[in-house]
Amino acid sequence: MKILYEDTIPRGFDYFSSLGEAVSYNAATLRADDVEKCDYLAVRSTTSVNETILSKAHTLRCVATATAGSNHIDKTYLEERGIAWRDAGGCNAIAVAEYVLSVLLVAHRDNKLDLSRIRVGIVGAGHVGTSLSRLLEALDIAYVLNDPPRREAGDPRHFVDFNDILTCDVISLHVPFVKEGAHKTLNLIDEDALQSLGADTLLINACRGEVVNEKALMQRLTAGSAPTVVLDVFDNEPDIDTALLEHLWLATGHIAGHSVEGKLRGTQLVYEHFCELAQKPVKLAMDDFLAAPQPISFMPRDPSMEALNWDEVISLLLSIYDVTIDDQDFRHAMQAGNKFAAYRKAYRVRREFNAFTIALSGVVSEGILRQLTGLGFIIETL
Ligand SMILES: NC(=O)C1=CN([C@@H]2O[C@H](COP(=O)(O)OP(=O)(O)OC[C@H]3O[C@@H](n4cnc5c(N)ncnc54)[C@H](O)[C@@H]3O)[C@@H](O)[C@H]2O)C=CC1
Ligand SMILES: O=C(O)C(=O)[C@H](O)COP(=O)(O)O
């Protein structure tokens, strides 16, 4: 059994060589000949899987992506050919949620908003949207959800209409890129939607660039009373329009989901899909490759209070993940003429909150314990 895997898949060789012959490829140079004799193809979002690349793939049984999004895979073509496809839904939901929370914390610190007063509109209540809602609940930040497909499917959560989302202080987008149909997301944030946003709105897009109409966004950002905008994703990646960057409050290069855990979880899920299809036992787990959770020093200033104050939340969480570091690194890389793809390949090591333990001595209120565990920390009571 031959497994061809993209070289950006962490631990790809360790995982896939346990199942058969494992060969890596570079997405920029992949050709149809490379896929000719392979049985399983493991990709990330940087490989377009389509008729051209699969034209000679006559032994291929399955294409699996180690990512949540799967819009880079031509599923119709795969289904016509009888080739299975799988995604790694949920692998990096925590990472993206922590990215958005980091944006919110920096905005509060910089007096752009007050987290005690705002309402966050989450568009797309799937893995990422739900993870984000949990973090917001842990910190008692108000939010509403919009997700017509889930509402129609009977999801019992409370959903609001898209027009209500446009009135929120913060709008955070977490939908798949869907080009057509009743729930298409292409240009979901169009010229009209952008016109309705005022200078007090913070718009965050960490799903797919095509969900926001970038031309209309550029016009809106260069007109009066423009909203504050944070983009992790862009139209036409990796050849993005860098002219947009100077108008964005924060800009990062499609790394919201790139925590160590988020990427490795993607590999684990792809490996498990291949095990299932090849009827082989699952022998490897993420803990075989991840360092054990590390202690982080933190003690609430007043452990008897029902909640942490914003200063201590900000200091704790930004010490683990500060999105402004990514913003600076990305802008420097783009100014230096570095390629978008090269920047992403060299992305720094970033751990999720669940990779840290907090040792608490003495009595700490139920409220603070709820907050810290809700954020994902492992609590040790001394
Ligand atoms: N920037 C990054 O690094 C990352 C980006 N993503 C992107 O975020 C997307 C969402 O990720 P997940 O939450 O894991 O996917 P998911 O499939 O679990 O959730 C997506 C949700 O969006 C909803 N939805 C679909 N069309 C909608 C519409 N028109 N309006 C409102 N809601 C709609 C779906 O019903 C679903 O509940 C992915 O498809 C991917 O494109 C995901 C992970 C990392
Ligand atoms: O999971 C997704 O969907 C994403 O957008 C990934 O974070 C993209 O990562 P790469 O596959 O482009 O490294």
- Measured as a percent range, the helix fraction is 25-40%
Total of DSSP H or I helical runs spanning 4+ residues = 15
Gap between N and C termini: 51 Å
* Elements, N to C (H/E): EHEHEHEHEHEHEHHEHEHEEHEHHHEHE
> Can you say what the CATH homologous superfamily of the largest domain is?
NAD(P)-binding Rossmann-like Domain
Q: What is the β-strand count?
A: 14
What is the CA-based Rg, rounded? 21 Å
Please write the CATH class name of the largest domain: Alpha Beta
Any idea of the CATH topology of the largest domain?
Rossmann fold
**What is the annotated CATH architecture of the largest domain?**
3-Layer(aba) Sandwich
The global form is globular
The amount of beta strand, in percent, is: 5-15%
Give the cofactors and ligands: 1,4-dihydronicotinamide adenine dinucleotide, ligand LXYGBJRG
Report the mean per-residue pLDDT as an integer.
Answer: 97
Structural class, by secondary structure, is alpha/beta
Q: Provide the spatial order of strands within the biggest beta sheet.
A: 7-6-8-9-10-11
**How many domains would you count in the coordinates?**
3
How would you characterize the largest beta sheet? 6 strands, parallel
Describe this structure in words.
- This protein is an alpha/beta fold and 382 residues long.
- The mean pLDDT is 97.
- It folds into 3 domains: 116 residues, Rossmann fold (3-Layer(aba) Sandwich); 159 residues, NAD(P)-binding Rossmann-like Domain (Rossmann fold, 3-Layer(aba) Sandwich), CATH 3.40.50.720; 61 residues, no CATH class.
- The longest helix has 19 residues.
- Helix 9 links the parallel strand 8 and strand 9.
- Helix 5 packs across helix 12.
- The N and C termini lie far apart (51 Å).
- The chain is built from 15 helices and 14 strands.
- 1,4-dihydronicotinamide adenine dinucleotide (NAI) binds next to helix 5, helix 6 and helix 7.
- Keywords: Cytoplasm, NAD, Oxidoreductase, Pyridoxine biosynthesis.
- InterPro entries: D-isomer_2-hydroxyacid_DH, D-isomer_2_OHA_DH_cat_dom, D-isomer_DH_NAD-bd, Erythronate-4-P_DHase, Erythronate-4-P_DHase_dimer, NAD(P)-bd_dom_sf, PdxB_dimer_sf.
